[in-house]
């Protein structure tokens, strides 16, 4: 299937946004803010502040707000490549589980200085995850520090191409030195382009090693590229037809970069000079707003309900108003097929990561179940992040995981509601009125000689106390033998109230 893919980049003084478009439809949105630039790929000099043998981990101060997390598997050698199946667990990071677990206290000690690299940004209350195994990515290759291996990305499955890449890299390795993994984008690339990439990485690594010797604890040694440059490195491939950017300065920087390292891509980059904002071309602003909503309508009349929590994300598929096929099983199957395509897009668009539980509508046919799984796997295969999918469970659920290296779209753009504190609901005014009554009874026992209680509450609650609950308020005054005065506070939320003895 030939797809017309392009990338739009919008740059403002404090924010850069990139939209990946496929056949006119937004598939992915990447946002980088100046004050919250992603840390993945950054190299720091840190110091071990705590070793936890029970967790097989250590915490390292690298100069950030929270100490970074270093697992034992990110200290041991992860590139155990002794046969023809060389690969990284992930092109830009990750680690393989060690064959023989080692006590982390034998590897690091408190107060020890380390050179580390961030492999996962801080998420929520968690600090960044780091590794001592440094790797530097370029357009087509990943340079591995302190190693001499040659490998090929697992996503390149053509054996002839894998052998070609491996042979080319080994040949140039004799001249340039170093250890390299061919990324997915290297498929079909001319050997001399790979050689140029190796030379670039070799020079860059030489510069980095020089900085390592002079760096102080908590100091950044190497910072990753800004978003528009990472787009060139990570997203530009043969299926991206065009990149349009609305900043002349950034455009010039991208052209200079491609002329030096990716000359074949230079002609695909354009500066956008239209009168309309660049993100208005495909209604991207509206798509972003819809990606923050829980309900996602399907064309057939069905819909998805997406609930994102810290532990996991759940996606529920519903037929809604769709009743269009000959029998119930066929209707359910068609809805689930449409939902599989839609939720694969939503997962990527919202940048959902970690554990994702999908509750498809129950199907009786095993062929239908497999068909839905195949449809889901097909659309997820177009995702740059790595995903794994389980079979349909006995409860009719599909479990999947998606590699999470940065915050979701919701966490980047939103914060917990000040009224509900992120719960998604608030107590009713009736519930709060009953809480006021209970608190008044409690206060009357604590202050038996008070002549009056002043109740400060939201306008909504006070109005209910004066109307529907007026009889109850009068009855309570007789019980506690104390006057009750009500005062509305416009700034109070519906759940907030105070009782002041007068």
Structure description:
With 502 residues, the chain is an alpha+beta fold. The strands form five sheets. The protein has a six-stranded mixed sheet, covered by helices on one side. Strand 16 and strand 17 form a beta hairpin. Helix 6 packs parallel to helix 7. The N and C termini lie far apart (76 Å). About 4% of the residues have low confidence.
List the helices and strands and how they pair.
Layout: E1 5-12, E2 15-22, E3 25-33, E4 43-52, E5 57-61, E6 68-71, E7 113-120, E8 129-131, E9 135-137, E10 141-144, E11 150-152, H1 159-176, E12 179-182, H2 191-214, E13 220-222, H3 227-234, E14 240-245, H4 248-261, E15 269-271, H5 284-290, E16 295-297, E17 303-308, E18 313-318, H6 328-349, E19 354-359, H7 366-380, E20 387-392, E21 397-402, H8 409-413, H9 429-446, E22 452-457, H10 459-466, H11 470-480, E23 483-488, E24 497-501
Helix pairs in contact: 1-2, 6-7, 9-10
List keywords for this structure.
alpha+beta; 30% helix; 24 strands; 502 residues; 6-stranded mixed beta sheet
Summarize the structure.
By secondary structure, the chain is α+β, with helices and mostly antiparallel strands. Helix content is 30%, strand content 26%.
Shape: globular
Number of helices: 11
Strand content: 25-35%
User: Multimeric state of these chains?
Assistant: single chain
Portion of residues within helices? 25-40%
Largest sheet: 6 strands, mixed
Runs in which pLDDT lies below 50 for 5 or more consecutive residues are 78-98
Q: How are the strands ordered across the major sheet? A: 16-17-18-19-21-20
The overall average pLDDT, rounded, is 87
Radius of gyration: 29 Å
How many beta strands in the DSSP annotation? 24
Structural class given helices, strands, pairing?
alpha+beta
End-to-end separation in angstroms reads 76 Å
